[in-house]
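User: Hi! I'm working on a homework problem where we have to compare a predicted structure to a textbook description. Could you give me the structure for the chain below?
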Amino acid sequence: MTALYAGIEAGGTKFLLGVGSAREGSRVTRRIPTRDPDATFAEARAFFAEHAPPGGYAGAGIASFGPVDLDRGSPSYGRVLKTPKIAWRDADLLAPMRAIFPGAIGLDTDVNAAALAEATLGAGHGRGSDLAYVTVGTGIGVGIVIAGAPLHGTLHPEAGHIFVRRHAALGDFAGVCPTHGDCLEGIASGGAIAARWGAGLDALPADHPAWAVEAEHIAQLCANLLLTLSPGTIVLGGGVMTQQALFAPIRARTAALIGGYVRDAHEAALQQRIAAPACREAPGLIGAYLLAERAG
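Assistant: Happy to help. Predicted structure tokens:
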């Protein structure tokens, strides 16, 4: 009998709930809006109670928006830290679910979980155990898997907030990040594109300068990842990266920025190394199942 896990991909605007396993996928899923912690977790608990397998869940995993304390030795382990979502600051992600899942609950960031899923079962499968997952949407997040395990330091990767060289076409655009202004997220997220150009890429013509600006900034991120972590694969996901036309200029510009300094970072090699997500369903949810498996 297949072991079934409870998985939560906890996003800033929605929670994706699922019952299933990483390798066989979800038996049932539900999307719920991210409201305040009490209301959101009450709905999540009701879902998992409704769909509980006869023998109970084999484990549970949470892939959460950040920042979140992942240090098991910290008194605030499992709590959301200084998020822009004020109602969620200091929210405990684990306690509300322990009534249903008394055992260990796997926890990591949504992007680290997605990186784990893509490295194990997606675009990075068979390409080594080092992978970076980048989501470019409302914000920008980066998850890192090194030697098959999500990367943690004193916190966790927050590479969406690095600073890159601004494209001249931005003019005096100040950026939209409430903390850093024109960090990468501040100038290249979906919100930044709409703020600078008045619309998202899906509503702008192919010759609009916004396309080249976005490709330049994401290529700088890719080049920085290749130069610092040397992942075998960089997966570019999120709402902005559903625009498949971005991939070719990002690969070409990344190769130009590397300038032949890094092996297998020429444009032909980057056709494989810079890839779209390849998991059978949302990689954050598949990653939550994998976190549950590893926590057991």
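For your comparison, note the following. The chain has a mean pLDDT of 95. The two ends are 17 Å apart (CA to CA). Good luck with the assignment!
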